[in-house]
């Protein structure tokens, strides 16, 4: 059926459609028509808003229009963005707060550990001062227990393999100029030249001819220490193969040093210097231990805290003893040491330049008398020419240092620490009768010489 034509602006029933004023607000349009205001939002255009971000400047630009739904979507997007930013900021604040709490807990934990360590240090210092903590003192530590049976077995085995014999030789006596003394030496074989026939023992066994002077003797194929393991008679001593190898390498190393000393004068001087330094360190350690054993008794007598006193009785401030003349003639040294015969021995106590003589040395000599240590070898206070001028290896309280020595330009780099609270080495009052007469006399001589130097 054909439809009849309609007049524009009319409905199918012939009634005129209400005209919508496009300049009216959406709510006005909705109230005039039959659709809801929300439905009209997508169909109504309004003048273009100039600046959405600043509501105070909302203005219409004549002749420009856009859809209101874009405005609403922009507002919704902005609100969502603000919500996301707020959520992110809140999460960031929570994370920072949690991190601060963790840091606070860590600081509390570290503080507790620090206090526990300080308490432990104080306890150990008191034990050391009382002589109850053997092996915890500063300075060189005692050697581990030796396996003498293993040492002897390796020594005998090595000498048999080398066919090395002990010889008694005459060498100049350094203590008695112009005289000689007898010394026992182990004569070691020289390395074999290339192509030379190997040495053999009476039974036809091949003897050991090491390369003593190669850069890495234990890595040299000729010096393969495994020969000792294969030649070792099982059952002669109880030990593991690892301990046997270790002991064999140690003894072989000492033989290398002996061979170089026998054949190279410069090496012999180095060996003697090393041996003397080792002996001095051992005597220095013995002094430290004897003095720390009586710290509690001395502290009680003088009403001083033992742990405080232990801070100024330290290994680094102990003097060492030497058997040589040093910077004086042998005759002068022998006279003071009372050396009259070939086998006489004496130790020279070497003065320390950095140590405060009247305060610290007086304390140490008082501890010596209290310990009543007996010495098998006579000792005497050393010559000023042999005074040790090196700085201590450890920072010591300033009151322990000689004020002239520490003020010298060459010693400006020497580091010191604050005196222990409640104790100053210079404040200790020690009576003359607390020292041995010879120690007291020596201190007075040093003081007189010290005063003369200042004039």
TrEMBL record:
Region (Disordered): 1-35, 266-286
Composition skew (Basic residues), residue ranges: 276-286
Keyword Coiled coil: yes
Keywords, comma-separated and alphabetical: Coiled coil
Coiled-coil region(s): 93-167
Protein name: Uncharacterized protein
Organism: Candolleomyces aberdarensis
